[in-house]
């Protein structure tokens, strides 16, 4: 999971199979190598630039069992006719969670976060359009139209982590069907930057993306505050795996034009090449774990995969 995704190390540790189907898989981003583990208090509550890098985690079981020989519902995705660039407009709703105490402080907090949301949607659209800020990126079929922003004041939701409180929060606020993107923002716990569900044939009540509020552009998450956490997590929502999926072996992320890499990369390690297969590590790819300023690319193969996933799982 944005060059800031929650505990990147968590996603690696949670590299459990998605049990044949990638249902409600959340991809989360953990802390960088050498930093305290995501469960450590020093990492869990610290979102500032000086804290250990937070991981972009996208799913509770972010790494499917696919590479352990188990079948995957996504194995049938093929690079068939890719939808035209910018041809799909996705209605997008933001559900902003604030602590209960803020309810008595007027609209200042809401006004600030609404501004961050607007900036975030601009970054999301630019990233998926292959725009000027993402030079060298393939244009995708997707653009995002902000349809609504709502606010909830709830202390339990404000520190949400994957699990029961997440389900409660989503059940109370989610809108639309499989083709509607729901994004929840909060001061999420466990040192995560965010997580996302993968697409399923039948709409899951968990469907959507959760991100750290301060990872939006203009937030306080330091090198993870340029909006790429959401870009990364929406990639999972559209069936992309991490570029380091499966390490140097097997089918990797099932995308032919993303070079294999042995593990997630952090910061911006130019020239890193951890697998003997051709190609340097794709550190500029939105689906790695590098910092926001380092990420700017989707490949043509990733675009085709997202397009196929949309057609098979989310369209209509």
Written description of the protein model:
The protein has 316 residues and is of the alpha/beta class. It has one domain (8-314): Collagenase (Catalytic Domain), CATH 3.40.390. Helix content is 22%, strand content 14%. The chain has seven helices and seven strands; from the N terminus they run αβαββαβααβββαα. Mean pLDDT is 79; it is low at 1-27, 29-53 and 58-71.
Sequence-ordered SSE layout with sheet pairings:
Elements: H1 8-13, E1 27-29, H2 41-44, E2 55-58, E3 88-98, H3 108-129, E4 142-153, H4 155-158, H5 164-173, E5 181-186, E6 194-196, E7 209-212, H6 228-237, H7 300-314
Parallel strand pairs: 3-4, 3-5, 5-7
Antiparallel strand pairs: 1-2, 6-7
Family: Belongs to the peptidase M43B family.
Pfam families: Peptidase_M43 (PF05572)
GO molecular function: metallopeptidase activity
Brief overview, please?
The chain is of the alpha/beta class. It contains 7 helices and 7 strands. The strands form 2 sheets. A 5-stranded mixed β-sheet has the order 4-3-5-7-6. Strands 1-2 form a two-stranded antiparallel ribbon.
Properties at a glance:
MetalloPept_cat_dom_sf; alpha/beta; metallopeptidase activity; 316 residues; five-stranded mixed sheet; 14% strand; globular; Collagenase (Catalytic Domain); metalloprotease; disulfide bond; 7 strands; two-stranded antiparallel ribbon
CATH topology: Collagenase (Catalytic Domain)
Annotated CATH homologous superfamily: Collagenase (Catalytic Domain)
Low-confidence stretches: 1-27, 29-53, 58-71
Gross CATH architecture: 3-Layer(aba) Sandwich
Largest sheet: 5 strands, mixed
Count of structural domains: 1
Sheet with the most strands: spatial strand order = 4-3-5-7-6
User: How much helicity do the residues have?
Assistant: 10-25%
Please tally the helical runs, counting DSSP H or I stretches of 4 or more residues: 7
* Rg measurement, Å: 18 Å
Q: How much is the average pLDDT?
A: 79
E-strand count? 7
Based on the structure, what is the oligomeric state of the protein chains? Answer: single chain
Q: By helix and strand content, what is the structural category? A: alpha/beta
Instruction: Give the SSE order as H and E letters.
Output: HEHEEHEHHEEEHH
- By CATH reckoning, the class would read Alpha Beta
How far the N terminus sits from the C terminus, by CA atoms, comes to: 26 Å
* Overall shape: globular
GO molecular function: metallopeptidase activity
Family: Belongs to the peptidase M43B family.
Signal peptide: 1-27
Protein name: Zinc metalloprotease
């Amino acid at each position: 999971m944005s060059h800031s995704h929650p505990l990147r190390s968590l996603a690696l540790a949670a590299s459990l199979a998605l049990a044949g189907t990638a249902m409600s898989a959340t991809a989360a981003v953990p802390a960088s190598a050498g930093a305290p583990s995501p469960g450590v208090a020093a990492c869990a509550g610290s979102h500032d630039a000086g804290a250990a890098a937070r991981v972009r985690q996208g799913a509770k079981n972010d790494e499917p069992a696919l590479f352990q020989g188990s079948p995957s519902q996504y194995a049938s995705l093929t690079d068939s006719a890719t939808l035209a660039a910018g041809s799909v407009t996705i209605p997008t709703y933001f559900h902003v969670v604030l602590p209960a105490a803020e309810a008595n402080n007027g609209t200042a907090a809401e006004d600030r976060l609404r501004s961050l949301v607007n900036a975030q949607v601009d970054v999301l659209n630019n990233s998926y359009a292959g725009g000027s800020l993402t030079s060298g990126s393939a244009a995708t079929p997707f653009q995002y139209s902000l349809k609504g922003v709502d606010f909830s004041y709830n202390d339990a939701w404000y520190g949400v982590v994957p699990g029961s409180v997440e389900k409660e929060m989503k059940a109370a606020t989610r809108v639309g069907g499989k083709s509607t993107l729901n994004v929840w923002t909060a001061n999420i716990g466990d040192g995560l930057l965010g997580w996302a569900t993968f697409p399923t044939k039948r709409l899951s009540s968990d469907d959507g993306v959760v991100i750290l509020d301060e990872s939006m552009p203009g937030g306080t998450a330091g090198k993870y505050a340029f909006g790429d956490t959401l870009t990364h997590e929406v990639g999972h929502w559209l069936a992309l795996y991490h570029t380091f999926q499966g390490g140097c072996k097997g089918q990797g992320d099932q995308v032919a034009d993303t070079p294999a890499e042995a593990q997630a990369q952090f910061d911006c390690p130019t020239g890193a090449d951890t697998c003997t297969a051709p190609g340097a590590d794709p550190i500029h790819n939105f689906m790695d774990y590098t910092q926001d300023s380092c990420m700017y690319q989707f490949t043509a193969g990733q675009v085709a995969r997202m397009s196929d996933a949309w057609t098979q799982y989310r369209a209509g």
